[in-house]
Design goal:
By secondary structure, this protein is mainly α. It folds into two domains: about 80 residues, Orthogonal Bundle (Rna Polymerase Sigma Factor, Chain: A), CATH 1.10.1740; about 60 residues, Arc Repressor Mutant, subunit A. About 75% of the residues lie in helices and about 0% in strands. The longest helix is centred in the middle third of the chain and has 23 residues.
Length: about 160
């Protein structure tokens, strides 16, 4: 593939790359940065692209790997090292205590609203909250996966309406 063909194919993917980047980052500016970084890496490593392979998949892989590497880098940068003798800073997390009276009351209200749902909405909703996957809930309740998803959706909707009132 010539340089002109390579550049043409790369620029023709711009809209698709922006949508994919947006789905990864959920932020327009970060998505634009990711697209630019992908362009740079694709152009830099153009000679590593093998002809007769899927160009779009190659570019998407570059973008996905760039996103993952950036995420891992940011996690490392936000890691705190505590060099105090008794690990004072790590042991004092400074997190908000969720066992305040307001939090306990609020959690109780939410649980009572969940208990007030009809069984066909409450059971899939609670199973989902307990960590079951849609497929597992569908198999356990002998339902189609779409039915499970809609029941969980409508259960959430009813809960939000009940809590707002």
């Amino acid at each position: 593939m010539t340089a002109v063909e390579f550049n043409h194919q790369l620029t023709s993917l711009e809209d698709a790359l922006e949508r994919f980047a947006m789905s990864l980052t959920m932020n327009r500016e970060d998505a634009r940065d990711l697209v630019q970084e992908t362009y740079l890496k694709a152009l830099t490593y153009r000679e590593k692209f093998m002809n007769n392979t899927n160009f779009k998949a190659w570019v998407y892989t570059i973008m996905k790997n760039s996103f993952i590497n950036k995420y891992r880098r940011s996690v490392r940068e936000n890691t705190t090292f505590d060099n105090t003798k008794d690990l004072y800073y790590l042991n004092n997390s400074g997190q908000v205590n969720d066992s305040s009276p307001e939090a306990i009351l609020s959690a109780g209200e939410i649980q009572s609203q969940i208990n007030n749902l009809e069984d066909d909405l409450r059971i899939p909703f609670q199973m989902y909250q307990d960590g079951y996957k849609y497929k597992e809930i569908a198999e356990e309740m002998n339902l189609k996966i779409g039915t499970v998803k809609s029941r969980i959706f409508f259960g959430r909707k009813k809960l939000m309406d009940a809590i707002e009132n």
